[in-house]
Design goal:
The complex is a heterodimer of chains A (257) and B (393).
Chain A lengths: L2 E2 L16 H11 L5 E12 L2 E14 L4 E11 L7 E7 L5 E6 L4 E5 L15 H5 L1 E2 L3 E11 L2 E10 L7 E7 L4 E8 L5 E15 L2 E13 L4 E12 L18
Chain B lengths: L16 E2 L2 E8 L2 E12 L7 E12 L5 E8 L32 E9 L4 E9 L20 E6 L2 E3 L5 E12 L3 E20 L5 E19 L2 E11 L5 E4 L6 E4 L4 E12 L6 E12 L3 H7 L4 E10 L7 E9 L6 E12 L2 E11 L23 E8 L2
Parallel strand pairs in B: 8-12
Antiparallel strand pairs in B: 1-3, 2-3, 3-4, 4-5, 5-6, 6-7, 7-10, 8-9, 10-11, 11-12, 12-13, 13-16, 14-15, 16-17, 17-18, 18-19, 19-20, 20-21, 21-22
The chains are: A mainly beta (257), B mainly beta (393).
């Protein structure tokens, strides 16, 4: 199972005309390999109209991995108070569903959990667990809808549809070649009605091992039906930490890191 | 809470408590301290005022976070299941009743952790025995027994308060893999989860706590859309008993717990009911082996029981969650517990939790017999409703 992550590594690129959608996605995945380790601090803001109704804060650590596990990530919630210290450890596996453990500081205990439904809302926001945890590219078909020029840059529109014939929902991704990343994603239902729009912006370039990576500092998701909006804003992001596999194990969740 | 009229006490009660608590966390140079405590001010009965010391631990760990020493009050959470938590019997119990999270107690512990990539090993030393808090007579359900004393019974014989300084120790190892999480452990400790009540030879009503060797195994594994969980433990008391007066006959009798084994199985899966919300089905069962049914009912409220629960998370901005639960005794099917629990944020820093618990043992026999003090009969009709507001500063 190949995964691409929206929050940290969802990126796309191309180098020639007449590419298929699947080829675009493969190139993007390749382009975004090699960042090694990454740490970030984010705020999730939930809004109704112009009013902020809730904030969640969290820290994440990601580490690329080899073999059956393609990525290990550790998310620690820091706000609100009653979830402060709660940690979510995820192993993204290439052949299996991801393995997840949660650490509950009130119980001083970590336990294995079932992954939430991929369409479930993440902490009451407009983002889903699939948005957070990654799109499984092997479960989707990709179709290149258009290719346009933006100065020296190229902009692609790629349609993403589930291989599950019962799932008629689909997404249209607008991808900027120079960023190797989407700048917007439109979410449609089976009746071709636009339901949500994600805007990905405020990109910053990082150089890791002489390779350039672009990461957004702001991702907004607007629900066009309810007018609710959620935004992830990065307050801090760094690469190149010397993490070890042992930092991403369930037995280490109760240790200070 | 409405108490059953036992003819000796007015058995209607209510509790309006104010429970301020605090959490402190600090760390520097590998040293850290985490403290959590609360105090219950009961507005109706001062005897129910109680200090709760949850986790209060000073800890040191090395820079690589592979070794750690901790000293303080800790809670040992060993089990894998959600409903049947009898494996968490080393500490954690405040009393013989259900307790909200904030009222769970820690236990004096010194421990060492060794963390490697493939396992975690932990050693524990527990220098003191603390008897579970037993609410005063005025708060008791049913007969309102008041104990005269507590005594430890170990291989050296009887010990009173002076024996509460006692050596208890153990260890466990956690081995997580991609598919299965395994925990194996062994403890030698004074069993707080199983006490035997008897008159001593001086006719003092005594709670006896016995030394036990406690071995356990827990497993958790995900197979497809299902999370399977199991606990297995064995308690050995080495035949230690005490000469006491029989409550029913008045004669002398040797009292001591029998060795027994408890196995619990659980299953958890998500139900695809609502696309953006999570509905989780829980199924659990627990059975005691090695003792007959009557003894089993005395040793545990859940000696041969099944349970199911539904937890629905709305995944909305207020984090609303409703849980339904039902536990049924498989031998005495009239013994059941029903529970509904609802919780949500009111603001970003205020939560509300409301619920109802109905306990039905289906017994009309209120005669003072051992059988009436076993299983759910002891809390028959002790139905309760609760409303908890929590504000975080």
């Amino acid at each position: 199972m190949q995964k691409i992550l929206l929050l940290s590594t969802l990126v796309y690129s191309s180098f020639a005309l007449a590419l298929t959608g699947d080829e675009v996605i493969e190139i993007i995945k390749k382009q975004n390999k090699g960042f090694g380790t990454e740490t970030s601090e984010m705020v999730l803001v939930l809004k109704e109209g112009n009013s902020v109704i809730a904030e969640r804060k969290m820290k994440t650590k990601n580490m690329e991995s080899e073999g059956d596990i393609s990525m290990k990530s550790l998310m620690e919630f820091t706000h609100p108070m009653d979830v402060k210290g709660t940690k979510l450890l995820s192993w993204l596996q290439t052949k299996e569903e991801k393995s997840q453990w949660v650490y509950l500081p009130a119980l001083n205990k970590s336990r294995r959990i079932l992954s939430s439904g991929q369409n479930s809302s993440f902490m009451g926001s407009e983002f889903t667990y699939e948005d957070i945890g990654g799109q499984d590219t092997t479960k989707h078909n990709y179709k290149l809808l258009s290719e346009t020029k933006d100065g020296k840059d190229l902009i692609w529109k790629v349609e993403q549809r589930s291989k599950d014939s019962e799932n008629k929902d689909y997404q249209v991704l607008t991808i900027k070649k120079s960023l190797s990343a989407p700048t917007s994603i439109e979410y449609y239902n089976g009746k071709k009605e636009k339901m949500k729009v994600s805007t990905i912006s405020d990109f910053k370039m990082y150089e890791v091992n002489k390779k350039q990576f672009h990461r957004p500092n702001l991702i907004s998701m607007k629900n066009l039906i309810t007018a609710k909006e959620s935004s992830f804003k990065w307050e801090k992001r760094e690469f190149g930490q010397s993490y070890k596999d042992s930092d991403f194990t369930p037995q280490a969740l109760d240790m200070k890191r | 809470m409405a108490f059953k009229d036992d003819g000796t006490n007015l058995t209607e009660d209510q509790i309006l408590s104010f429970i301020p608590g605090f959490t402190v966390e600090a760390s520097a140079n590998g040293f850290s301290y985490f403290g959590k405590a609360a105090y219950r001010f009961d507005t109706f009965d001062k005897k129910r005022d109680l200090l709760y010391l949850g986790e209060n631990v000073a800890r040191w760990q090395n820079e690589a976070a592979t070794h750690s020493f901790g000293v303080g009050f800790q809670r040992l959470q060993l089990g894998a299941l959600e409903i049947f938590q009898s494996i968490d019997s080393i500490n954690d119990l405040v009393s013989d009743s259900f307790s909200p999270e904030i009222q769970r107690q820690g236990y004096p512990v010194v421990n060492y952790k060794l963390i490697q990539e493939s396992f975690k090993a932990e050693l524990y030393y527990l220098p003191y025995f603390i008897a579970p808090y037993y609410p005063p007579n005025s708060s008791r359900l049913g007969y309102g027994i008041q104990f005269d004393q507590e005594q430890i019974v170990n291989a050296d014989g009887l010990k009173g308060k002076e024996g509460f300084r006692t050596d208890q120790f153990g260890g466990k190892i956690d081995i997580p893999t991609e598919k299965v999480d395994i925990t194996l452990g062994h403890f030698h400790f004074i069993d707080r989860g199983l006490s035997i009540t008897a008159l001593d030879l001086n006719n003092r009503l005594t709670r006896y706590f016995y030394a036990t060797d406690f071995s356990f195994l827990t497993l958790q594994t995900i197979q497809g859309d299902y999370l399977f969980k199991s606990n297995l433990y064995h308690k050995s008391y080495h035949g230690v008993d005490v000469l006491a007066r029989d409550l029913s006959t008045g004669g002398t009798v040797l009292r001591g717990p029998e060795d027994h084994t408890v196995a619990s199985l659980g299953l958890e899966t998500k139900l695809p009911l609502f696309s953006t919300q999570d509905t989780t089905l829980l199924l659990e069962g627990q059975r005691m082996f090695g003792v007959d049914k009557v003894i089993g009912r005395r040793y545990s409220v859940f000696s041969n029981d099944a349970a199911w629960g539904i937890r629905h998370q709305f995944n909305d901005v207020r984090n609303k969650q409703i849980t339904l639960g039902h536990i049924i005794d498989l031998e005495r099917t009239q013994e059941q517990i029903f529970q509904v629990d609802y919780r949500q944020y009111i603001t970003d820093s205020t939560k509300v939790n409301i619920g109802v618990r109905i306990i039905e043992a289906g017994t009309d026999n209120r005669a003072f017999t051992f059988d009436s003090l076993a299983g759910l009969a002891i809390v028959d009709d002790a139905d309760s409703a609760y409303l908890t507001m929590t504000h975080y500063f």
